[in-house]
Specification:
By secondary structure, the protein is an alpha/beta fold. Helix 9 crosses helix 10. The termini are far apart. About 10% of the residues have low confidence.
């Protein structure tokens, strides 16, 4: 019984702390977010965490996500995420992997095309005002089926109303487009609409959520846009 007790104690200690490669004795950091680490993190630091994590993902040198399953017991009684995402349901767009995140690091509201509605806005307000996230990322991606559907003005059941929310981005880009077809067959047009949609979603978040608008004014929260390249794994931040 004593040996088992010692084993489990050592296991918990090992999971709670990790020494970054090459930093033995210098940089001992919690594996999962805690209330204290979340409170101390600034929006800019949260953004840098994501940039660093994506760089590791692209290079194939993941550091944090490999421990994801083992971290479950550490987040079971509470969560302290530092980021919240609005992203697409595309099967290739998994923010936990893309940004090499630990268990409990981020909220992710996923819907075709990465649009917002009152329910998602409410979710983002909870994520920031109530749960303490410091960063909201609107994440678009290349070769997005939702964006392509909006470009072609697709009509299909309940999807029709959803794609209508992306049409303003299509119409904005189309006004001065001079680089080929304005439909899903033109990858350049689709990508440009995707980026414009990200910008419009950010604008909608700021205009429609007084809570998030005030948090951003007080520099407690930062709202940014980003685009994920499904071919390379790289994320480009738009602002």
């Amino acid at each position: 019984m004593i040996c088992r007790s010692v084993f489990w104690t050592l296991l918990v200690v090992t999971l709670m702390f990790e020494v970054a490669p090459g930093q033995a004795g210098k940089d001992v950091r919690p594996v999962v977010q805690t209330k204290d680490s979340q409170a101390k993190m600034t929006p800019q630091q949260a953004l840098q965490r994501l940039k660093d994590g994506n760089a590791r993902f692209v290079s194939g040198n993941i550091r944090d996500h490999k421990n994801y399953r083992a971290e479950v017991p550490l987040t079971g009684k509470g969560q302290y995420p530092f980021a919240a995402f609005v992203s697409c349901i595309d099967s290739r767009v998994d923010v936990d992997n893309i940004f090499d995140l630990n268990n409990g690091d981020a909220f992710d509201a996923r819907v075709v095309g990465g649009i917002v509605d009152p329910d998602i806005l409410g979710s983002l307000e909870y994520a920031t005002e109530e749960a303490g996230a410091k960063l909201i990322v609107v994440l678009g991606h290349t070769h997005c089926g939702g964006i392509k559907g909006a470009c072609d003005d697709l009509k299909m059941g309940h999807l029709t109303g959803l794609l209508a929310k992306i049409r303003p981005a299509v119409e904005t880009v189309a006004k001065d487009w001079k680089d080929g077809e304005m439909n899903s067959k033109n990858d350049k047009f689709v990508e440009r609409v995707m980026v414009e949609n990200v910008k419009l979603v950010i604008q909608n978040i700021r205009e429609d959520s007084e809570i998030i608008r005030e948090l951003e004014k007080k520099s407690k929260v930062k709202v940014v846009g980003a685009a994920y390249d499904v071919e390379t794994g790289k994320v480009s931040f738009l602002n």
